[in-house]
Structure formats: structure tokens, C-alpha cells
Amino acid sequence: MINQGPQWLHIFIDIRAEVAQESAKFWSSALGWPLGDHWPGYPEFRSFQPPTGDGYVHQQVGDHGPRIHFDLEVTDNAEMQRLVELGAKVVGEAESWCPMASPGGLPFCLVHHHEHVRPSALTWDGHRSRLVQVCVDSRADLHDAEVAFWRAALNWRWSASDSEEFAGKLYPPSGSSVQLLFQRLGEDDPDTAVRAHIDLGTDDMEADAQRLVQLGATRIGPGRGWVPLRDPTGLVFCTTGNSPDAP
I want to staple 50 with a disulfide (CB 3.0 to 4.6 A). Which of 57, 73, 119, 212 is the partner? Predict the structure, then answer.
């Protein structure tokens, strides 16, 4: 049998306590999903709650950030060993999840699988948007190994890019939460580990960028099929021409 790998991905916005409220206010408005109560037994976690379907975006308050990490739902505890054999590392212990890092140092966790219904895109004055993508950003010397790891780890459909900047995308089964894009950063990038940012998908990119700026985001430059922005706490993200109904 072919290993299908994880199918549902959760996004965590990791943020320091002193700016957690500001982050929560912005992302609740940007997503259109209010932030729920603290998780029972884990007060550092809260989940953004869509009006329909199941949420997959969460806030983690701690001594790090702003940054993005994600959790992968798995059906088999043997997935941890399989990912270690592919090059990942176990970096901690927890009762309900397994903290890991990719070969390039991107943090992620394994959690138990549940059935989900993906929430629909929301409409804003004539256009729609939804968080549809995580972009894995790798320095050039880490890029190829990172892409190879995630392709093997997830076993999702791969679509290569003809761009020097982007290697391609991994697409989960239809109805899953988000897809993964892989970006090659320049040799002069200051980070020594792979990082990630989040991308909204919209059917009117300029209108969505204006909406996000009105909510407190700042434009940080032009893009080609995307608008790069920074949230009020410094977290970089994009609104993009990806369909809000993807993947």
C-alpha cells in the first residue's frame, strides 16, 4: 500500500504575550474568524473559529515569534519514525503532540487525525478570501533538501514551477485545509533555518490588499501574482491570486 501521508494541516501563529492581543485582533478581522477560548489544560493556545466548517488556524503564545509553524494530522504513530528516517528530528516531548523539525529547521508537530469539513471562503464587499497556502521559505543552500523532504513526507500531488524563485507546490486532496508552496530565498538571506509564511487566496487581490491595510497591515513591496504585507506585530504574509476555494 502507498503511504498517503498527512492530509490535514493546522497553522499556528506563534506570538509573544505582549503582542498577542494585537495579533489576535488583526487576524480575527483578516480571516473573519473570531478567536475562541483558551484550550482546556493549555492556556497558551486558542483557535480562530470560522462561521462554518472546521478551523485550522490557531494562536500560540510563548517566548517566540512572530512566526508560523504547522501541525500535521496523522493516523499512524509510525509516521514519526518514518519522518525521522526522511531527515526530520524530534525536538521535544508533549502529551498530545510530537514536536519535530524539518531537515532545514522548520518547526512542525504531529497530532492525531480527526475528520474535518473545510470552511468556505468569506465575502468582503464583492470579493472573497480565505487562507489557502503556507509558503516554505528556504535559503538557497537548504532549499533542495527541504523540498525533497516535504515531497516524501506528505506524498501529495506535486506541480513543478518553471520559476527560479519557486520550486513548485504540493497539493493535498481536495477539501483539505491548505497547500504548500516552496520558495528559494537569496544567498544573502539572514536566517540560518527554513521558515514559513502564510498566503491568503482571493478573487480580487488589490481589493483584498486594501482591506488588509485598512485593518492595520502594511504593504512591503510589489509582487507578481501576490501582494506582500506585514501585520501589526511584524509577521510577513501575502494576499495572492490563488483561488479562495483552493486546494
Answer: 119
CB 230 within 8 Å of CB 192: no
| Nearest in space to 214 (alpha carbons), one of 195, 182, 239, 181 | 239
CA separation for the pair 119, 144 (Å, rounded):
33
pLDDT band at 2 (very low <50, low <70, confident <90, very high): very low
Residue type, 156: W
Tens digit of each residue's pLDDT (9 = 90 or more) over 76-118: 888 999 999 999 999 988 888 999 999 999 999 999 999 999 9
CATH number of the 122-240 domain: 3.10.180.10
- Is residue 108 within 8 A of residue 180, CB to CB? The reply is no
Q: How far apart are CA 135 and CA 77, in angstroms?
A: 26
| Residue 195 burial (C-beta neighbours within 10 Å; 0-12, 13-18, 19+) | buried
Dihedrals phi, psi of 204, to nearest 5 degrees = -150, 90
Residue of 104, 224, 238, 105 lying closest to 164 (CA atoms):
224
Rounded distance between C-alpha atoms, residue 163 and residue 96, angstroms: 39
CATH of 9-112, picked from 3.40.190.10, 3.20.180.20, 3.10.180.10, 3.40.640.10, is 3.10.180.10
Q: pLDDT tens, 200-214?
A: 999 999 999 999 999
Q: Kindly report the pTM of this predicted structure.
A: 0.94
**Grid coordinates given for 108:** 512542525
Question: Computed from CA positions of residues 37, 38, 39, 41, in that sequence, does the dihedral angle turn out positive or negative?
Answer: negative
